[in-house]
Every structure is written in structure tokens, then in C-alpha cells.
Amino acid sequence: TPVIVWLRRDLRLSDQPAIVEAASKGPVIPVYVLDDETPKHRRMGGASRWWLHHSLASLDTALRDKGSRLILRRGKCEEVLADLAKETGAAEVHALHHYEPWWRNAEKAVGKVADLHLHHGNYLAPPGSVLNGSGNPYRIYTPFWRSLNERMPPHEPLECPERFAAPAAWQQSDRLEDWNLLPSKPDWAGGMREMWQPGEEGARQRLEDFVEEAARYEAQRNLPSIEGTSFLSPHLHFGEISPARIWHAVADAGGSVGTFLGELGWRDYAQNVLLILPDYGSRSAKEDFSFLQWRTGKGAEEDLRAWQRGMTGYPIVDAGMRQLWHTGWMHNRVRMIAASFLIKHLLIDWREGEQWFWDTLVDADYGSNAVNWQWSAGSGVDAQMFVRIMAPLSQSEKFDAAAYIREWVPELADLPDGEIHDPAPMVRPKGYPAKIVEHRDGRERALAAWQHVKASG
Ligand code: FAD
């Protein structure tokens, strides 16, 4: 009897335990279900949908090379999978665990209508399994990572079967083009096409390139002008490569790679937080944030728009926001600066930023995005204090962002290094805006808002 493999954010053939297990039992029917119908199922953002299109196309090609193919269906997961099981006579459904609250709900619903077998494989250790001395999950990253790291190395990656047995007949599949995942007009994806190759082969290539550089990661990772990080985040998000494979490749390369592995640990940590606080993406963990009077109304809306478009008058923030719009990715140091600027200098609710990133990042990940936004805001279970306010201009100098700014804010390209981080009004080119808020004014406004929280709490 055939076995269904229900694919979600695990679009790979290598080190994919659900596929390996299913293939050992019978003909495999791989299916991807696009669920835009279930309430509370967070609809994927625009950049993610672009990525998904290409990742599915790539997976289908890889499956066809092995005598199989990918079935595409739209609708509620439990209904689609129940129908498919009936049509094919499949006895079991195999899938990897996912931790977004809507995926956990879907797993429950599917479990009621099919014989669902869930496997681990998208994280270094199964989320929920790293516990403190009293048997409880960690809320703070550092002890979590210490404990997780003691359990490393992760499993050795599983190889993909050479060929898949095909079912007697292939069931109907939607045409990928009919899902309209790609932008129509205007086509904003040109910069993304240039930068990325979605799919397992693109992920493998990125890893290969990074392994050469891994020893320099620690020294380079905070410098946005240099390509000093792995660029693996969208591949990891869509599960085109497993973190275990990355862990082994990087650890085997030698050198001081602990900092990099610790970043993979942040990714695991985020899913663990979601298990404790499923609504982390939409709700501040610290209660006193309910007293924070975020700015709203016309002025705040205009400022939000200026931030989104990269027109704040702060070159480092603008460079980051334009890099994001153009490529679907932003350097981590700049994400921190841009997030802090929105939350503190503009005093705009972190959830507005979370939403914008959700829509524009190719690596938009419910857990990682929420953990990092709540860290920046100070509202999270592990977070810096709200009153720690990053100074964007000195960050820009400290991390040597001049070349990065020249690339992404071409209006400023002719300014010398001494001027580019904070162009004075006399040298500011026409068309580049004045600062939408002075650093000192923004800082004082944020501190006053925090005073109000303290007085109310
Ligand atoms: P590398 O530095 O090469 O790191 C390797 C991998 O470790 C990454 O691919 C990623 O999977 C993981 N990782 C690294 N840093 C973090 C981190 N701080 N938190 C969680 N995982 C991490 N990352 C996402 O994957 N999705 C998001 O939606 C996301 N939103 C963010 C929002 C804000 C406000 C901030 C400050 C950070 C966010 N990050 C997010 C984390 C981080 O910026 C990206 O993972 C990183 O920039 C991706 O580039 P890279 O693959 O070259 O990273």
C-alpha cells in the first residue's frame, strides 16, 4: 500500500526522515498542501510565496529524477489528506513535526482522519526535549544553548533513497502556476532572483561556499559590508537543508565555529519558546508592555511608511530596509538596528515591524521573527531592556557600514566615509530625506513612554 508524505517546511530529499521512513514501507506519494483557508493559519507573506514557488518546482524536479513526483493540492490539510488517502488507498501519512501553532492544530486535525506519523528532523534536537534540572523548558537562551550543546553532535544525516517506488497511478495535482505565488505586476522579485537559488541544490551550494569561510564568521558576522554569514536562513526555514547536515559540515571544517553553531541554537530556541508561548508572534510576553503607549495616528503611519521604504534619513536603517525590499533578506546586525529604530526612536509597536518582516523576508519564520522582535523590544522572555536604546549612527560607524550604505542608498554613494553615516544638511544630496526624528528627541520620547509604563504598572 502507498504511503503519503505530507511536506511543509521540509522541502528536501536528503536527511528527511519522513521520506526515508515512507519509502521503506511502500510506494511514496509526496504532497504539498497550500492552506489559505483555515482560520488562524498565518498566510505566508509575499516574499515567502515567491520562494515557495521555486522551492516546490525544484523539489518536483528532484523527485522526478528518482521516479516520483510532487502532488500539489489546495485546501484544508485534513480534508485534502483524507481525500488523497481515500483516492490512493494509502494507509499512513508521514510528516515532520512543526511548531507554529497553526501547524500543531493541523497535525491534530490530520491525526483524527488519518494514521499520522510525525518525525523529528528540522532542528538540532526535538523542540520540547531540552529541559532544565527540574524538567521544565528553558525560557532563557544561554542555559538552553549550554544544555543543547552538551547533546551535540546531532544525528548523522540520512541519505535519500536512490529511487522511489511509484503508486499504481498518479493522482490529480494542481499546476504550480495556477497557485499564483509569484508577483504579477509589478514584478518586484528581480533582486531576489539575482541573489537566491531556492531549493535543495541552492542550499547545498550555499553550505559549500560557507564552509570555506566559517572560520572567519566570528570576526566578520557583524560587518554588513562583507558577505560574512552563511545566507542559509531561507533554505533552513523551508527545510531545504537540515541543521544537522550544516552542523556536521561546519564542525568538520574545524576552526573556531562555536559562535556560528550557537546561532543555529537560536533557531532551535525560538521553536522551544513557541511551545511555551504559541502566540509569541502577536503578544508581548511581559505584561507591563500593555501599558506602553505606542504612537498611532497619521504621524506614526507616515513614519512607519518611511521606515518601510527606507526613507528615514538614517542611512544605515534605510540601507537595511532597501536591502530587505530588494533581496528579501537583511543583514542581522542591521535587522537589530532597524528594529530598535522602529520600536524606540519611532515608538511604533513591534508587531508592525514583525508583520512587515513577515511579508518581505524570504526567511520569514514565525518563531525566529517573534523571538528577535520581542528581544529588540524588550518585551520577550529573553530580551534586552526597553531602555537600552541603540544609537544607529554610532552602530553604523562601529560596524563599518560605509560600503553597505553606498550599495543600498546610491544617493549617498559619493559621500566620503566621514560623512556617509550621518550626512550633515549641507552635504545631504537632494532627494535624500532629513532625519524623521532627531536621535536625542526619539530617545527622550521612548524613555518618557517607559516612565509612564513604570508609573502605571
Ligand atoms: P548566519 O549568521 O549564517 O546564521 C546561521 C543560521 O542561524 C541562520 O540561517 C538562522 O537559521 C540561524 N540564526 C542566526 N541568527 C539567528 C537569530 N538571531 N535568531 C534565530 N535564528 C538565527 N531569522 C530567521 O531565520 N527568520 C526571521 O524571520 C528572522 N527575523 C528576524 C527579525 C529581527 C528583528 C532580527 C534582529 C533577526 C531576525 N532573524 C530571523 C535572525 C537573523 O537575522 C537571521 O537568521 C540571519 O540574519 C540570517 O542570515 P544567515 O543565514 O546568513 O545567518
From TrEMBL:
<dbReference type="GO" id="GO:0003904">
    <property type="term" value="F:deoxyribodipyrimidine photo-lyase activity"/>
</dbReference>
<dbReference type="InterPro" id="IPR036155">
    <property type="entry name" value="Crypto/Photolyase_N_sf"/>
</dbReference>
<dbReference type="InterPro" id="IPR006050">
    <property type="entry name" value="DNA_photolyase_N"/>
</dbReference>
<keyword id="KW-0157">Chromophore</keyword>
<dbReference type="InterPro" id="IPR005101">
    <property type="entry name" value="Cryptochr/Photolyase_FAD-bd"/>
</dbReference>
<keyword id="KW-0456">Lyase</keyword>
<dbReference type="InterPro" id="IPR018394">
    <property type="entry name" value="DNA_photolyase_1_CS_C"/>
</dbReference>
<dbReference type="InterPro" id="IPR002081">
    <property type="entry name" value="Cryptochrome/DNA_photolyase_1"/>
</dbReference>
<comment type="similarity">
    <text>Belongs to the DNA photolyase family.</text>
</comment>
<keyword id="KW-0285">Flavoprotein</keyword>
<dbReference type="Pfam" id="PF03441">
    <property type="entry name" value="FAD_binding_7"/>
</dbReference>
<protein>
    <submittedName>
        <fullName>Cryptochrome/photolyase family protein</fullName>
        <ecNumber>4.1.99.3</ecNumber>
    </submittedName>
</protein>
<dbReference type="InterPro" id="IPR036134">
    <property type="entry name" value="Crypto/Photolyase_FAD-like_sf"/>
</dbReference>
<dbReference type="InterPro" id="IPR014729">
    <property type="entry name" value="Rossmann-like_a/b/a_fold"/>
</dbReference>
<keyword id="KW-0274">FAD</keyword>
<feature type="domain" description="Photolyase/cryptochrome alpha/beta">
    <location>
        <begin position="1"/>
        <end position="124"/>
    </location>
</feature>
<dbReference type="Pfam" id="PF00875">
    <property type="entry name" value="DNA_photolyase"/>
</dbReference>
